[in-house]
Amino acid sequence: MPILLPKQPDRHTKCVRTKIASLHAGRAGCLASQYAGHSLHSGFLYTTSLDLVPNDGSGLPTCEVDFVWLVTGRYPEPTTIILGECKDRGRNRGVGGGGTISPTDIGNLKAVADALPSKRFQSFVLLAKLCPFTPEEIHSAKNLNERFHRRAILLTARELEPWHIYERTKAEFKIDAYASSAEQLALATATMYFPDPATHT
Fold first, then answer.
1. Which domain holds residue 10?
2. Start-to-end Cα distance in the chain
3. In the prediction, which pLDDT does 152 show?
């Protein structure tokens, strides 16, 4: 199991749980963390800006994660862990600009999520941006899911800015405006981004 080594929060992540109007690169993380704080009603812990360093010989990557949410459930429910990667709009607003989440980032988070013991943890990967996801990002995120295991959560400004997360999205995709669990977020993501039945049925 990977060892999580915290480092000092930088300007991209120090504003967690504060819904601010500025558009620095931490805003997507701020909004995603604030949403989790008031919508995932079970007990929770969170931390930001972690370096993940694997045990020797594990084969896991050394990588960074923008935030980790740990949501406790009632026994015997497993603990939920949400690994988050956040970007803003980027200085280059075009496709592939500064706000792009790379396949390497997504692959690293998938490897960490796969390493968590499934009997103890339900793992999810949350990707948050303040602009639409590129086709390449959606394709990479789809690989986080398995046929009967949905764990990719994709959020943009469309979901992060309203008080109810899917307030702007519900009519287009016929989903509820509310989501109070990581499972519900992953299901909504599958409906919006991965319509192939083999991915989310």
1. 3-200
2. 30
3. 97
Q: Which two tokens stand for residue 23?
A: 């558009």
Query: Of 53, 77, 79, 74, nearest to 65 (Cα)?
Result: 53
Encoded tokens for 50: 């972690």
Contact between 69 and 62 under an 8 Å Cβ cutoff? The reply is no
Contacts of 77 (CB under 8 A, 6+ apart): none
- Please give the biggest Cα pair distance in the chain: 49
How many domains does one find in the chain?
A: 1
Contact 80, 71 (CB under 8 A): yes
Return the number of other C-beta atoms located less than 10 Å from residue 105's C-beta: 20
| Among 124, 127, 190, CA closest to 151 | 124
Is the bond preceding 76 in cis, omega lying within 30 degrees of 0?
A: yes
Indicate the SS3 state at residue 175. Answer: coil
Could you tell me the pTM of the whole model? 0.77
C-alpha angle 21-22-27 in degrees, rounded to nearest 5: 90
Q: How many residues does the chain have?
A: 201
List pLDDT tens digits, range 167-200: 999 888 888 888 888 999 999 999 999 986 554 4
